[in-house]
Amino acid sequence: MTTPTDVKRICCIGAGYVGGPTMAMIAAKCPDIRVDVCDINQPRIDAWNSDELPVYEPGLDEVVAGARGKNLFFTTAVEESIAAADLIFVSVGTPTKSYGIGAGRAADLCYIESAARMIAENANGPKIIVEKSTIPVRTAEAIRTILAANSENGQFQVLSNPEFLAEGTAVEDLEAPDRILIGGERTPEGDAAVESLVRVYANWVPRERILTTNLWSSELSKLVANAFLAQRISSINAISALCEETGADVDEVARAIGSDSRIGPKFLKASVGFGGSCFQKDILNLVYLCDHFGLPEVAKYWNSVVTMNDWQKERFSTRIVKTLFNTVRGKRIGVLGFAFKKDTNDTRESAAIYVCRDLLLEGANIALYDPKVPVSTIRADLNYVGISDEVIDKQLTICDSAVEATKAAHGVAVLTEWDEFKTLDFDTIYDNMFKPAFVFDGRNILPHDELRAKGFEVYAIGKG
Ligand code: UDX
Ligand code: ADP
Prior knowledge:
The protein is α/β, with parallel strands linked by helices.
């Protein structure tokens, strides 16, 4: 295949936070292409076909509703979809390995491998395979090897097309991306496959924003982009600790340095720590790669971004305990927010998980409110970090509102920057709390001076 394929049918394996929204946008922008989004998880597919989508993203309901049943289909029929597709996105999860070689650092590629085997078994003609999942560099080669060894009639081109959308703004990011990155083999066949995918995106993305590279540059760029972003947060968080000692204000420092056009203002918000499915996983992956290629100094450099993030989370919970007179045993602490950032129901690696774990282990009673995260997710996340059901049943209460979570509390901690927390009725909250009434703002979103004027004792990240 040296001429580009006119893509008419797309199959996406994996209907998660990346696959679902990305395919919905492609379907919405390319009415002539039929898009099947497949998953082995039946309840997840049922949810995509219902009015309550499994992924909460502002604006996503409308995009899905506009295309679903026309040229967008959510299905568990992975085999048939693979057979019918010209182009197959692989968008399965790649969590950090929790066992064996590379545990805690390398990406677990078991889902990628099973997807590749499924493609090999069901492909009956030439296919373009597109890696969408974030994967370690040179995964394309593994996919290619599996395909070649398991397929008699398949002719495959493997591309890398990492997704840069951020959760909470997925629809905006997909609608007007800063760039689309497509990596392919530098051969006539590879170039034709790249051009086929370029033409899909060119339906709505200006050509100059579609970058093409070799496979390995594309794979590596995704890890590096996330490592640079996370590094900025760890850098400002490191400075937040220094600000607290010196009386400088971290937001003022961020504004001052961010006005330098070489530094830029974005991603300089000090916080209780970054979370999300990507940053930590991708850095650990990068660290593993560097070690693997005999570059321990480079590995150590990037690993410090994660170390700083862990320290920031721990520093925050320690601060709560110290402030509450060195003990939180039996005290009620209102926790506002559990998602790793606002406007998402995703909690993967959320700082809130670790702060809540630390407080529960100190014997605190937590009253928690998050507008979007279901109770089952909160319980599963806490179980995962070693908190037993017994402790959860005894010490954790899930509340229906922020005000309820702060009732009879000794302290209130803001862990996610949900907009509704900025405009709470703090007079009522103050009246209902034990005195002194402590507020720990892990996101620096509250009006601190106003709160102090009402009588609260306020701790804010990076504010002396
Ligand atoms: C990130 C990348 O931004 C995206 O390009 C990539 O595709 C996936 O990983 P995401 O994890 O969805 O996206 O969210 P992001 O907005 O990057 O935030 C990550 C974490 O950093 C959140 O916990 C957020 O609260 C925190 N953060 C972000 C800060 O603490 N300070 C900031 O200034 C920015
Ligand atoms: P991401 O944030 O990368 O989208 P998620 O975990 O939200 O990750 O989604 C990945 C999805 O891929 C899950 O819903 C999972 O069930 C699905 N999945 C994993 N392996 C396969 C497979 N072989 N076939 C179909 N779906 C798969």
